[in-house]
UniProtKB/TrEMBL annotation:
InterPro entries: 7TMR_DISM_rcpt_extracell_dom1 (IPR011623), Diguanylate_Cyclase (IPR050469), GGDEF_dom (IPR000160), Nucleotide_cyclase (IPR029787), Rev_trsase/Diguanyl_cyclase (IPR043128). SMART domains: GGDEF. Gene3D superfamilies: 3.30.70.270. It is an enzyme of class 2 (transferase). Coiled coil: none annotated. One of its GO terms (cellular component) is plasma membrane. It comes from Erythrobacter sanguineus. Residues 1-16 form the signal peptide. Its EC number is 2.7.7.65. Keywords: Membrane, Signal, Transmembrane, Transmembrane helix. This is diguanylate cyclase.
Amino acid sequence: MAAALVALGLAAPAAADDQAGGVFSPRCHAASDSSRSAEAMIDRSAWNCTDTGWQADRPVAWLRFEAADWQGAKVPRHFLTRTSRHERITIYSLDTGGSLRGRSFAEADGRTFPAGPVFRLPLPVVTPETEALLVRIDRPHSIPLLSEAGVVHDPEDAYRSVQEMMLLALVLGMLVLPLLFDITFFIVLRERFVMFHSIMVVAMMGYVLFAGGVISVLASLPVAFLAVMAPLCWAVGCGAALLFLSEFLERGALSRRMRRITYWTGCWTIAVPGFFALQLHATQAFDDTGYFLTIMPSAMVVSVALVHAILRGSRSARFVAAAWFPLILTSIARLLRGLGIYAGPSNLDLMMFLATGIEVVVISLAIADRFLAIRNERDAALTEARMLEQISTRDSLTGLMNRRAIEARFDALLTQGFDTFALVDLDRFKAINDRHGHQMGDAALIACANAIRAAGDRDSIAVRLGGEEFVVLLRGENTLHRAEALRQAIPLRIAQDVPGLELPVTASMGVIMLSRAAHQTMQFAEFYARADALMYEAKASGRNRLAYERLTVFSEPPALRRKAARKGQAT
């Protein structure tokens, strides 16, 4: 706040300097129904000559400028005031003796210029006999339209200073950077809070352009359009800020009820104050007050939500509080002026623009900090997911791949050339469990897995199907020889790793070697059925041996082919 006051001290001249520069404020103000004439307003008793009691909810508002205020200065030639909706402005020059000269202007006749969100109209002829200027404003929609009005000889006397324009340009430039950050963050993290912050930043840029008068440097736009855009951008920005807050804070920083209140207050702020910002003539009697009263809950809910989150230990809420505290204070000051509780020059809005710049810097840091936190959370979640996936695809006893994993990858492995399927089964394994217990049996299974794993390389894949059954997939040259060598290594490894067994533990193996021509017709279940039949043939032939078959275009398992052959011999 101190920085804002210093900036204002450098950028805005004092009130006395404004008078010396030829900008004169109204001495008195009044309100009436539409039937009141300018002649009836000549009487000074009809006026309120204090700085309170401004009214924009009556059909007609009146302003009175006294000629005594510009004695010794250049005679005013232009009326200027804050951009706001109205139906018509009529300006009268009151001469000594009570004669009136008037000029009437529709809303579209106003000309904007870079002195803030203001427009100007030419005055009727002001002569040495003129004692006052009376301004009639039909259907005024805003108290600042009245309280920030003035008359001036040269509109350039009311232009923003170079320092003020530099400050506004700086704030606009600062708003571009977080918008680019948001786009980058949204590409990486599809988080809704990034989208809401983007809307908030765009709305802030619009507010600085329209409420700061920067747009008038670039283009001459209709008064009605400018009058609507500034409050509409502010309503959308405040609503988006609440939506951003409801999504941005860490999980658990806001209770479910507080989060819902924050979210729906954001929707309310965009919809209801946004409607009043349109300043329809049908709502002229209440839209100014309605706008400020309906936007007030946004500041209250933001404050409560931030305190609530900070008390729950939210790190992000501390960033947001530091960013929004100056903006909330300046917004409240602007709200009080908008309600007519006190009057002040439009230069006070520079405090809000400066607070906007502070908000941009701190919120950008907050989003970067939250981005890193979310990335760490996602990395941890991915690591956990990989661990869970590994657990679900690995045998818990031996660490080899399980049946679920090999079935999921089987087609791809065939394509990669793993065309030899070796099914291994430990001989008389049940006797080990019966004589030595399941702990000794588990040790034998682990030793068998180690033997298969030790004999393997990048051209072989070991799998435990369950019980004492294992599968080895092989590719490359001499796969049958390699499978036999692996089978012979199993008894040696079990004897080495599991001492105390009464008999050596041997293994039987059924091997299927598949030709390239049959690749597209084979599924895991078919391989398993054929290898299982071969493995039982090996066991039936005395165990501790290998039985194999080389498939070309056959589609039936060996047992079915032998059965068909016997039928043929019988016939």
